[in-house]
Amino acid sequence: MANEIARKLVHASGAGIPALYLLNQRFIHSPYLTWESIRYVLAAGVAITVVLEIVRLGFGWNWIVFEKLTREYEQDSVAGYAMYVFSGSLTGIVFEPRIAIPAILMLTLADPISGQLSADELRTIKRPLVLVTMFGVCTLIASIWVPLPAAILGGLAAMVADGVKPIVHGFVVDDNLTIPIYAAVAMTVGLLYLPAVTF
């Protein structure tokens, strides 16, 4: 239980990077905390994660932090944290801030809420309560940055990424990899094709 709490806290800590950017935009106004600078930090995070995974899987150096923060089924495969760093960083590098920030926050903040609601459940599709909660939280987050139609598309995409577990060649596709990417693509589509839709 303690390890699960630690995992969720680390998961949520990823919100610190977009939060730092937003604080700079609002209060600090440092020329060193632009989104371009954030992209370099994200790229560095991917590089460090690749090295850590090579060391862990290739040389068996399973440091205490890995023992605490990886699950048993991740011991011999790429860990969820690596997919988390890769997908969040890729989203931040590829997409503009108004798309990337809510997509990253869906991963860092909404996913742990969904995980808590579905703890100890092994389902191909999560329960309706979990799906609705994930959709609601993600749509709310996205609506701060994009118009409601795009926010709804982003929320739906994140809900599907989190709530449906496809199996490809015997491997379950981890939602740490798919949530921000699906959401960012969906919000982009919403901005491009649903600009005139109002509620």
From TrEMBL:
TM region(s), chain numbering: 40-61, 129-159, 179-197
Keyword Transmembrane attributed: yes
Asked if the Swiss-Prot or TrEMBL record annotates the protein with the keyword Transmembrane, the reply is: yes
InterPro entries, per the entry:
Dgk1-like
In its UniProt record, a GO molecular function of this protein is:
kinase activity
Organism from which the protein derives:
Halorientalis brevis
Write down the superkingdom of origin.
Archaea
For this UniProt record, the keywords arranged alphabetically read as follows: Kinase, Membrane, Transferase, Transmembrane, Transmembrane helix
Q: What protein is this chain from?
A: Dolichol kinase
